Amino acid sequence: MELKWLEDFLSLSRTRSFSRTATERFCTQSALSRRIKALEVWAGTTLVDRSVYPTALTQAGIAFRDTAEEVTRQLLEVRDDLRGRLQTGSDAVTIAALHALTVDCFPRWLQACQQRIGPFDVRLVPDNLHDCVRALNEGSSDLMLSYAHASFAVLLDPRLFPSILLMTERFLPVSRPGADGRALFALPGKRREPLPYLAYGPATMLGQAADFVLKRQQHEGVHLRCCYENPMAEGLKPLVKAGHGIAWMPSGLIERELASGELVPAGDAGWELELETRLYRRADVEKPRVLQAWSALKDGLPA
Q1: Alpha carbon of 75 to those of 8, 82, 109, 293: distances in Å?
Q2: Dihedral Cα 265, 270, 271, 275, nearest 10 deg
Q3: With 70 as the cut, is the pLDDT of residue 46 above it?
Q4: pLDDT (tens digit, 9 = 90+) per residue, 85-123?
Q5: 302 in a structural domain
Q6: What is the C-alpha to C-alpha distance for residues 292 and 205, in angstroms, rounded to an integer?
Q7: Could you give the CA distance from residue 165 to residue 100 in angstroms, rounded to a whole number?
Q8: pTM greater than 0.85 (yes/no)
Q9: Which among 22, 29, 115, 212 counts the fewest CB atoms within 10 Å?
């Protein structure tokens, strides 16, 4: 059982539409369908009637809905209470961030802020995009660090959640080099010998970025075989370094490996994407340290 399965189910019971729920839950319809099915397997019965339109709950689903609502409410209340107890101080800044950004971007962000406005308490919450957006929207997070790109924009109203562009970086396919120094696995691959592909999964922002590149390059005849999936770039990087396949990586996360030649690009510039890193906040935020940090970073991170 995962809490997000219950949240998916409750959202679907409200919207009565898989497509609208997928948008609300920041995931693909296929990922949503898999999670609803997983919940039904756990429950041991069908909860959603897929034979009618708009989508409806079965009698079992209707009976389960009230319990799901209560369990979800209680868990979220306990989580928020525990987070409040752990707060370093009333002036501490809580930041929700995508996992990959906590490794490279966040330390630079924090250093740049503290150099300009002095030390302040910080609570960092690494999470997936959906939970980061929800934390910012609910007010349990003061700021959010996220990747952004026109093809998969973060679904936040810019009037209510303004953002600052901190930096841009390459998002490129990489491979371990062979004996000749060139990529051991080079795109686009061959039909009879598809390249082993280390993927993020369709429900992740970096997974959507990689999918966008692959769809854009379909004319090249891409030949990949997905052999491993991990939603975190830090989890894929060791496998790429060990020679298990190719993966798309933010350049900031593999800067040292590219410089040393431990990893090399697995394709030319056509296989790359330029990712933005943006800092988001609520327009109505009043916490002084948040506003000071925001003002200090309007010109972006130092090079």
Answers
A1: 15, 11, 32, 32
A2: 100
A3: yes
A4: 555 455 688 899 998 899 888 888 888 888 888 888 888
A5: no
A6: 29
A7: 17
A8: no
A9: 115
